[in-house]
Design brief:
homodimer, about 450 residues, TIM Barrel, eight-stranded parallel β-barrel, two-stranded antiparallel sheet, FMN (chains A, B), flavoprotein (chains A, B), oxidoreductase (chains A, B)
């Protein structure tokens, strides 16, 4: 077990994961559309030898604009630009299986994998919400189960496309005038419930074969999907016990799906609020809370809980009689997490908004670098995590502080790499094998 | 008229536009998936103060692999990487209106426009061919007129999305906790024949407002579309007279569509085969022709002409009785150009393949730098072109030779810019105005 190392992913988000971060004097309210802001973040994460960067996404404009920074550069586009500004770090882009075509999306990820030298990852989302659906000709969002059925077929088709060129399909025989070997091309000829894809991809097989497959839904459908396809899972867990239960459940499901559970890495989100003393960390947390606009928080919470406007009162607890997760069509697991958090800690709506404002349901932990490193070590060594999705409350300063003060402690404890070393691809970084090509027949025995 | 300047676009294509270029000793058969090859090309073009780079594309693998390099990095992805390696040059990506969603594609172009500082361009194609259709769940390609009707609606929706944020929608009032002004967001609420798009784009309005709109179809539908939407048109013309007629026709259509004909730039393609003497240029052309594999050429020509296999004979002319353009559903204008070229010059199939191998119907011109500059000046000053789409037969050497030997002559004659100067966006480079926002009401008079 001494060989087991932490994996760290930097979850980039405009001026930070705290919803009020943009209001701090240090923050640039235009950071979300500034390439140089993102280059700076990527280079800080690479200095900290993080495994990867990650960008969330949804194909809709979150209302409303008054509240906080909205809109973002499209993740695959932004990460392609960051690929040229970095050398080692993985690049994980969110993209929706509900609102893309397999041929187009498979091609874009293959292109990024080639351009980055094997550093592409795909955070596979099915995209909750009617707003997104209405941007793609639908009146309402497809049902949760329907979205996951489409996602599974999407993945099957995408993997056929990524395997449609054998690694050695290019012959490049100039003298004979033969560039490629058509017998090493395998058109998917796929006709399914959601997709028809006849031909091979128009990009050769990539350094990784295909991008690292990442997933973040923690509903029943989400966990079943992860067990079948995902190589890394982002998750929001509030307590060690919950995180251990989730970890054990997902590893067990992965084993039952016929896969090596070591080939699925579980990465809970953590929002580290750092101070050189505990009091300083608490003060930093308090400063952020003072910048929250609670009227906006109420609107967002009502939306998440699918309640009519003006239902919630700021200084009262959540009302009784909220529907069960099974009745919710949107982001199911996030819904349950928020309701359980409020109930368990007997929070008023104001207190709940304060907690959510820091990390939208992810674990916020304010403390010294030693305390944050302790927390990470505990979860890592006690069966709750293979690593963490680091979500700094303020960017770039929160990422810089983590790299300067927490990463050295993790290294000193032997938990985290000191340098990138010889492994080159994102999948190698996460200790995962390169996928075999599904069309490859065993080589014939030598005569 | 002394102020009128040429516009030059570098059309990048693997190892070059000549189909046999990959077989030359200098060529890298893996160049199509090598970022550094493309960075090198982009920097040569920028040294030559070209207006823009351009990448063609189609969402299918061209059969068959034996013949020549196939597959390519997806253009928007590759051009995003090139944006970070260049400072001035425009970046024109081909993308299909038949096989994309307006919301996704509008967002990607907006992201590239922001990342590149206003250098994005979109070559709008409707994508001919059943192969592409079958990669997107269709059995056959949509009819030509249907594809163009969808393209027109696509453009209307995309422009609504690009205008959905006013330029000053971001307020960034940290003290008041107000980030944006929701009254300056304009959701398209579009419900049309092909698309339903309800919400605003999730990217702010970009430096150019939207990408430079480029078009390359020269069929009746294509020309009507160009007159309505295009700001630059790539075209294949074999003779000065044909080019003049096309130029006059397109400018007249643009005027009739209510637009300033100066706001549509016509750029014929030219394949310059350069030598320091005319004999050297002819020898270079001959060397390329000797590398053509004619069996492959016959297959491709049969496919373009929609003939059964083994119809054509290498040393005979094209057969009589080919169908008229109106009966063709694929690339209509290319079909006519090829048939007319063969008839006009009484070419055998072998001779036709030799001619097409150099530039797929674009004008191949072998000569000294002076002769090429003369040809360019003639077309530019005699009403046939506003500039050229430069298609080097071999890359990078052919682009390098053009920049080293032809560009200085064009500058010395006062036809082309000496340096990029203060204009920053691609649209400014082409001398075009930034589009007004369609949702913007005139400012109220001062009280």
């Amino acid at each position: 077990m001494t060989e087991r190392k932490l994996h760290l992913n930097a979850f980039l988000m405009n001026t930070g994961h705290h919803e009020a971060s943009w209001r701090l004097p240090e923050s640039d309210p235009y950071a979300h559309v500034d390439l140089q802001h993102h280059v700076r973040l990527a280079r800080i994460a690479e200095r900290g030898t993080f495994d990867s960067l990650f960008l969330a996404d949804g194909p809709q404009l979150w209302s409303n604009l008054a509240q906080r920074p909205a809109g973002a550069l499209e993740p695959l586009t932004l990460l392609t630009a960051l690929a040229t500004a970095t050398e080692h770090i993985g690049l994980i882009a969110t993209a929706s299986t509900s609102y893309n075509s397999p041929y187009n999306l498979a091609r874009k990820f293959a292109s990024l994998d080639i351009i980055s030298g094997g550093r592409a990852g795909w955070n596979i989302v099915t995209t909750a919400g009617a707003e997104a659906a209405r941007n793609f000709g639908l009146d309402a969002e497809p049902a949760h189960a329907e979205r996951y059925a489409r996602a599974a077929e999407f993945l099957d088709v995408a993997r056929k496309l990524w395997d449609s060129w054998e690694d050695d399909a290019i012959v490049a025989d100039k003298a004979a005038g033969v560039w490629g070997d058509d017998s090493k091309i395998h058109p998917p000829r796929h006709r399914g419930r959601y997709f028809g894809v006849e031909g091979a991809l128009n990009v050769p097989r990539t350094p990784q074969g295909y991008p690292l497959l990442v997933q973040a839904g923690s509903s029943e459908d989400g966990k079943a999907f992860a067990a079948r396809y995902a190589e890394a899972v982002f998750t929001a867990q509030q307590t060690l016990a919950d995180a251990q239960a989730f970890y054990a459940d997902l590893k067990s499901r992965t084993r039952r799906a016929g896969r090596d559970p070591g080939h699925l890495k579980v990465l809970p989100g953590i929002v580290p609020v750092l101070g050189s003393t505990e009091a300083e960390a608490r003060a930093a947390e308090q400063l952020l809370a003072e910048h929250i606009v609670y009227d906006h928080g109420v609107l967002r919470l009502e939306r998440l809980l699918q309640l009519p406007s003006h239902t919630l009162e700021l200084d009262a607890p959540l009302p009784d009689g909220l529907p069960p997760e099974s009745a919710v069509e949107g982001a199911k697991s996030r819904y349950t997490l928020v309701v359980e958090l409020a109930r368990r800690e007997r929070l008023t709506v104001r207190q709940l908004i304060t907690r959510l404002g820091g990390g939208r349901g992810h674990l916020t932990f304010a403390g010294t670098p030693e305390q944050v490193a302790d927390q990470i070590e505990t979860w890592f060594t006690q069966g709750a995590a293979d690593g963490f999705n680091i979500m700094p409350p303020v960017l770039p300063s929160g990422l810089d502080a983590f790299v300067e003060h927490v990463v050295p402690l993790l290294r000193a404890r032997g938990l985290f790499r000191d340098a990138y070393g010889p492994r080159r691809t994102l999948r190698e970084r996460y200790g995962l094998p390169r996928p075999a090509n599904q069309y490859l027949t065993p080589a014939p025995a030598l005569a």
